[in-house]
């Protein structure tokens, strides 16, 4: 997979969505029981305004090349490519130290290789990816490195696949594997050279 979603033109707005399906049932006593399906997907709604013909052609030629939802490509969301955290060091997974708490369901992954004793080295909602895995996760709490350069990352969703010792942790310019969400498109050309309200929906697809 070598296709990369166009960086330019930049969208006017980016709506990031998170889908975590769950199953809920209600008893006769009106108690609600829920359980997770252990799946998750990111979605992106990109809106473009006042595109020139050349800019529009760049986007739509790329979409046509994907043949609807058939093909996958890499997409890095604008703004979110840069993490909120300090991100110092060369982080890697520490041993096989990942756990899901049986009580609250929280997934914790212990990492190493950070610059020691840095507060906020990863911030909540920084995107995280483990080398060799296409799934993207997000930190749900701030994390700091200790005196040994270790940091425990609390992430969602839970790991889809186990991570291995020394596996690199990607925290900057995290690429999402996506496809377009629809098989077709129709855009409006308003009053001459401008395409307005061009909307492209992407969905994470592993």
Structure description:
This protein has 206 residues and is mainly beta. It has two domains: 13-79 and 176-204, Phosphorylase Kinase, domain 1 (2-Layer Sandwich), CATH 3.30.200; 89-170, Elongation Factor Tu (Ef-tu), domain 3 (Beta Barrel), CATH 2.40.30. The chain contains one helix and 15 strands; from the N terminus they run ββββαβββββββββββ. The strands form four sheets. The chain has a six-stranded antiparallel beta sheet, with no helix packed on it. Strands 1-4-15-12-5 form a five-stranded antiparallel beta sheet, with no helix packed on it. It has a two-stranded antiparallel ribbon with strand order 2-3. The chain is globular. It starts with 12 loop residues before the first strand and ends with a strand. The mean pLDDT is 89.
- Uncertain ranges: none
- CATH first level of the largest domain: Alpha Beta
> Major sheet: size, sense and barrel closure?
6 strands, antiparallel
Helix content: under 10%
Task: Give the strand order, joined by hyphens, for the main sheet.
Answer: 6-7-10-9-8-11
CATH fold group of the largest domain: Phosphorylase Kinase, domain 1
Helix/strand layout:
Layout (H helix, E strand, L loop, with lengths): L12 E7 L2 E5 L5 E5 L4 E8 L4 H13 L7 E3 L13 E12 L6 E8 L12 E4 L6 E3 L11 E6 L12 E2 L5 E5 L7 E3 L3 E3 L1 E7 L2
Antiparallel strand pairs: 1-4, 2-3, 4-15, 5-12, 6-7, 7-10, 8-9, 8-11, 9-10, 12-15, 13-14
């Amino acid at each position: 997979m070598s296709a990369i979603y166009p960086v330019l033109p930049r969208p006017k707005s980016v709506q990031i969505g998170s889908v975590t399906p769950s199953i809920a049932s209600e008893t006769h006593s009106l108690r609600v029981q829920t359980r997770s399906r252990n799946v998750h997907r990111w979605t992106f709604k990109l809106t473009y305004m006042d595109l020139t013909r050349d800019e529009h052609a760049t986007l739509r030629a790329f979409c046509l090349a994907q043949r609807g939802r058939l093909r996958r490509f890499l997409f890095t969301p604008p703004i979110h490519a840069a993490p909120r955290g300090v991100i110092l060091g060369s982080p890697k997974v520490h041993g096989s130290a990942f756990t899901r708490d049986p009580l609250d369901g929280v997934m914790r992954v212990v990492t190493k290789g950070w610059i020691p004793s840095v507060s906020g080295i990863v911030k909540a909602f920084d995107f995280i990816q483990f080398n060799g895995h296409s799934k993207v996760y997000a930190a749900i709490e701030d994390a700091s490195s200790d005196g040994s350069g270790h940091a425990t990352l609390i992430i969602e969703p839970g790991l889809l696949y186990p991570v291995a010792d020394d596996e690199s942790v990607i925290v900057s310019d995290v690429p999402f594997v996506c496809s377009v969400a629809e098989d077709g498109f129709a855009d409006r050309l308003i009053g001459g050279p401008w395409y307005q309200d061009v909307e492209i929906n992407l969905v994470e697809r592993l």
